[in-house]
Write a structure and sequence with these properties.
The protein is of the alpha/beta class. The chain has helices spanning 3-13, 24-36, 51-62, 76-85, 97-106, 117-126, 142-149, 168-173, 188-192, 196-228; strands at residues 15-19, 41-45, 67-71, 89-91, 109-111, 113-114, 131-133, 157-159, 179-181. Helices cover 51% and strands 14% of the residues. Helix 4 (76-85) packs parallel to helix 5 (97-106).
């Protein structure tokens, strides 16, 4: 799938599940439940044992039906291995310019991590397709994201860290391009206990929360436009 198509699909879904697990089998199980719940995007972090092999397995299993990406990628060497395994996007908690350069050269979407305005702009100017704002909740959550978007409306931001069903709508309203969601959705404890259905339901709830938040934004924008035209 081409990079533009990958970005379009992620934007449409609006949620990037951050898969961390204690084993490859657990990662695959939670990934399958999330996809069944309607989120056709998965970020397999490098903290998962055998993460590159997991990416290869899921990419082969899902094909173009589910986007499989790599997370917690700290250097271009690791990014290269993940891309070779089938990763269609790369995510990092930090800013590494060489990783951005590699992904651009390979035609792969890249979301580096940044926190300050300077880091965010540096990442964007270096060729990031979106910027992961991490750890967002530690510096104000939706309020911080809104503050970043005010002077930087052109930059696509993916808040990660502290995103939950309780805060999802607020992050979308603050201008998030997509949400990076961890344990609140990627519930490996539920998978271990055999409660797969709760993960499926959580995925459905996130899809609905994003849809509702974006619908509310559209209504507000339409109202403002109509009002200004009076």
């Amino acid at each position: 799938m081409k990079k533009d198509e990958v970005l379009k699909r992620i934007e449409e879904i609006g949620v990037i599940p951050v898969v961390r697990a204690s084993s490859a089998e657990e990662a695959v199980a939670v990934a399958e439940a999330i996809s069944e719940g309607g989120i056709a995007v998965l970020e397999i972090t490098m903290t998962v044992p055998g993460a590159v092999a997991v990416i290869a397995e899921l990419s082969k299993r899902f094909g173009d039906q589910v986007l499989v990406g790599a997370g917690t990628v700290l250097d271009p060497e690791t990014a290269g291995k993940c891309i070779s395994a089938g990763a269609q996007f790369i995510v990092s908690p930090a800013l590494n310019l060489r990783t951005i350069e590699l992904c651009n050269r390979e035609g792969i979407a890249i979301f580096p991590g940044s926190l300050t305005p300077t880091e965010v702009v540096t990442a964007w100017e270096a060729g990031a397709n979106a910027v992961k704002v991490f750890p967002c909740s530690a510096v104000g959550g939706p309020k911080y994201l809104r503050a970043l978007k005010a002077p930087l409306p052109q930059i696509k931001l993916v808040p990660t860290g502290g995103v939950s069903l309780t805060t999802a709508k607020d992050f979308i309203a603050a201008g998030a391009w997509a949400l990076g969601v961890g344990a609140d959705l990627v519930n490996t404890e539920a998978i271990r206990s055999g409660d797969r259905e709760s993960v499926i339901n959580a995925a459905r709830a996130y899809v609905e929360a994003v849809r509702e938040a974006r619908g509310r934004e559209t209504i507000q924008e339409t109202t403002l436009t109509n009002t200004s035209g009076l």
